[in-house]
Design a protein that fits this description.
The structure is a homodimer of 228-residue chains. By secondary structure, chain A is an alpha/beta fold. Chain A is 37% helix and 21% strand. Chain A has 8 helices and 12 strands. At the A-B interface, strand 1, helix 1, helix 5, strand 11 and helix 8 of A face strand 1, helix 1, helix 5, strand 11 and helix 8 of B. Strand 12 (224-227) of chain A pairs antiparallel with strand 1 (4-7) of chain B, so a sheet runs across the interface. Chain A binds a DNA duplex (22 and 22 nucleotides) through helix 1, helix 3 and strand 3.
Chain lengths: 228, 228
DNA sequence: ATATGTGAAAGAATTCACAGCA
DNA sequence: TGCTGTGAATTCTTTCACATAT
């Protein structure tokens, strides 16, 4: 085990906690607002946002009431300042450095993923243990030896680690990076993980989503639509 | 547009609908039960399952009470029959054929993904429009021209389409496959999608998960753990 | 003693519906 | 009129606590 020392927690940017379900929709609002800003639309109503996300307008207003109130009655929300608020709420006004562990098919896809820039995130390192993969180039990135992660993290500061290893290695990898002070993980492996308090882990599980999809397809009563 | 004809909806396997939150946990229960079966453990208590999923035992019992009751008081649940029940509830007692659209980094990762077998799913086709990608081999699969999808689907029957294209093409791809009678989609693109009733779409959005993660990291009050 | 299944209570999230401002 | 922000009502989810079965 590693010895531990305490550093000050970062200042919380918001007083009232955002409900989990609201939080899960904030990225979608942000995406829509980015599109609207691009399109030059200065304001947007809860109704318009609701339609784009296929949810109710009451839902949108309730969600956005968590932000500093910047809707104007009769007018709607200012796109630019609402976007700014949500970006701040998500912590995306500052950049986040990512590392990917596992340079297999999924890890490689993550390393190449273009969409991170929109979230002010960037993959800064890729790790693997396989000698055949270490040294491979992916865009600007070169796969590094996971066993040298400590020294690499001393030079390239990393905020979040994306786990794209076989699931039976996920816990060991997380333990390793916990030792380097990493406090945020995104796990692509369908494995149960134990972490100490103060560490945040989220899962992306494609199989789980598909299994829910198959259930829903079986329960969907509508007749098949077949082109003739 | 296409002309439409009606076919009978498949028989619903369950009378009472499964609550959405319960459904979202069924794949995780199933994963644990597969592990327990492998390990040869004949029965499991709600407490044990709860611990593995970091939820409460009451939650587990409530969730499992949706299944045909097969817990035995004082003893726990029979691993094998519970697994069977959940597998049936998810519709995984029969195989599902997948197609991937988009042979970029993410589509390629999906095409290679080994984990689908556990869910009785298999990728049977990969499509793209890029002439450089059409013809590429990925394992047993060869990337086909998306414009020939209709004739390919006439030979290889497909149940679910995974969308791994740039997000601005997601809607067009879905519309195309709707015309071939596909009623289930998993969308990896962060795009809003319109589908007719009777069609099921689910999203996997890595950026959204990361944005929620950054928010949670900022809100987590615990001091940093730094190894010395 | 052990552990399920479930009413009843508590807690969250969503929708309703409308007061209030532009 | 158009649209937000929010109490109140409703619906969904989780937890509690215990009767019941092994």
């Amino acid at each position: 085990m590693h010895e531990l020392e305490f550093k000050m927690a970062p200042t919380k940017p918001f007083r009232r906690p955002i409900p989990a379900e609201t939080l899960s929709r904030l990225p979608a609002y942000r995406k829509q607002l980015l599109d609207l800003l691009q399109a030059g639309q200065p304001t947007v109503s809860s109704r318009q946002l609701a339609e784009r996300l296929s949810i109710s307008d009451a839902q949108v207003r309730r969600d956005l009431s968590c932000m500093a109130l910047l809707g104007r009655r009769g007018l709607g929300y200012n796109v630019e300042s609402l976007l700014e608020q949500i970006t701040r709420a998500l912590g995306l006004e500052r950049p986040w450095a990512l590392a990917v562990v596992g340079a297999g098919a999924m890890g490689t896809a993550l390393a190449h993923y273009q969409g991170f820039a929109r979230s002010n995130m960037e993959v800064r390192a890729v790790f693997d243990v396989d000698p055949h993969k270490i040294g491979q180039r992916h865009g600007d990135l070169i796969v590094s030896d996971l066993r040298q992660a400590r020294s690499i993290l001393a030079e390239v500061s990393i905020d979040i680690v994306l786990i794209a290893t076989p699931s039976n290695q996920a816990q060991a990898v997380i333990d390793q990076f916990l030792g380097y002070g990493i406090r945020g993980f995104l796990n692509m492996a369908p494995a149960s993980i134990e972490v100490p308090p103060g560490v945040t882990v989220r899962w992306v599980d494609i199989s789980s989503e598909l299994e829910q999809l198959t259930h829903m397809m079986l329960m969907t009563p509508t007749a098949n639509l077949v082109s003739t």
